[in-house]
Amino acid sequence: MSEPRTQRNTMNPSRVFRIAALTIATAVPLHAMATGKDVFRNGESIFGQPAAAGATSSLVVDVATTKHVTVPYGETVTFQAPNGKQFAWTFNGLDRKAVPVAKIAPADFPATQGQVYVQQNPLTRN
């Protein structure tokens, strides 16, 4: 009579690799959120992107006199400071979001407390 087989408690190497990959794939976005980075997993800003050179801006905002503004999703807005500096931003990240101007402004742009409220993306309406 032969002895009964005992089951070994070993993991398949491919299963270990899959578990490690899943752990890393989950941890990276969580780390970005925990560090306060406002970016998607691909590194793009959740607020949109700097406007392309030569992009037409439908709205010019003077940050010295405007504390908040509402813009349609996908809109390009130019922000102007009293010292003459300006930058343009296209709001095509997340919709229905309040975007602090200070988070999207270039480093040399004067500090501002303004907010931009981005309306809902028309493609995601129910």
UniProtKB/TrEMBL annotation:
Residues 1-34 form the signal peptide. Gene3D superfamilies: Heavy-metal resistance protein CzcE (2.60.40.2280). It holds the Pfam family CzcE. Keywords: Signal. InterPro entries: CzcE, CzcE_sf. Coiled coil: none annotated. This is CzcE family metal-binding protein.
